[in-house]
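Quick one - inputs below.
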Amino acid sequence: MPAWGWPELATLFLHFVSLSLLAIGGAITTVPEMHRFLVTQQAWLAEDQFSSSIALAQAAPGPNVLFVAVLGWTVGMNAAGGAAAGAPAWAFASACVFAAMMGILLPSATLTYFAARWGQRNRERPTVRAFKLAMAPIVVALLVATGWILTAGHGSWVSHPGPYMLTLVSAAVVWRTRVHLLWLLGAGALAGAWGWV
Amino acid sequence: MHTPRPASVRQLFWAFSWLALQGFGGVLAVVQRELVEKKQWLTPEEFVEDWAVAQIMPGANVVNLALIVGDRYFGWRGALAALAGMLTLPLLVVLGLTVALSGVAHQPAVQGALRGMGAVSAGLIAGTGLKLIAALKGNAMGALACTALAALTFIAIALLRIPLVWVLLGLGLPATAWAYHRLLAQAKTLGAP
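Output:
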């Protein structure tokens, strides 16, 4: 039986609610706070469970925010005694996924929905047009910067040239060709599995 | 001129499901490929505008983008359909992988594959950014201002690691004022024959 009940489920939900509106630049920007809460404060997750949950969700298909679902699932499985505990554990882990995803999505999605509608209704206003024009070069540069930061996370390019080469090549291929993106990811996975990066 | 658009809420759901399922390591590059290049529901300029809003609002960027694009075509039903498409099937896949890999996630080959895919997906995001530079050509702020803003943003975020909020305020507000000024100047030239 889960050692957990409604109060813990509500605590999990409210933790993600509290982070939702702070996640400017994506849910991934609030990872340090999630780590502090889930691993350090509540001890609901082990250190390696936390980092492998994020790595797995990053590599899997779909939006990166799904790492929150994997965190919720793992927290639930831990609390319910692991997959061996059978159907109740699976049901409880699913409830944790639901609580975590609703918490991280509801506040930000509601705000975005109404803000975007307002922007669309007022798109002919000079201030709205000026804002969108001004943001265009900033967000384009942000994308390039995000690619840079993700690669720099692997360490220095002198000691770890592999990831940098892989990032550079795939950026150039996306920019200049129409090769299907899955081929690139497959090549990256193989290169990694063989220990080249 | 005929502009392509989704025919139904159902089509919107499947379009977003399909692109989300292709998005290993992030969906943005696929969204650009599918919605701008293949389906042509958005022009590159519209895509950059919507992406700007999606990025500035809190929450997952591609989730925000799904809401915005879905709402554009079918109101709240479209927003929900696009959101559900973006999340439902990938959620099942990622939880399936979590269960399947819970025993082997520590093996060096699996770790290496995850690292390799991570490096490629970083390149996909950067490459999409490089491609979208073309959408800045007609920007009313002018080429010089656009180049300067993009360079400053890259330096502030990638090299100096300044939090995004401060970059958006520090560069976004003066840039908006400049764009406003340029729009007024343009309107005046157009108004006086």
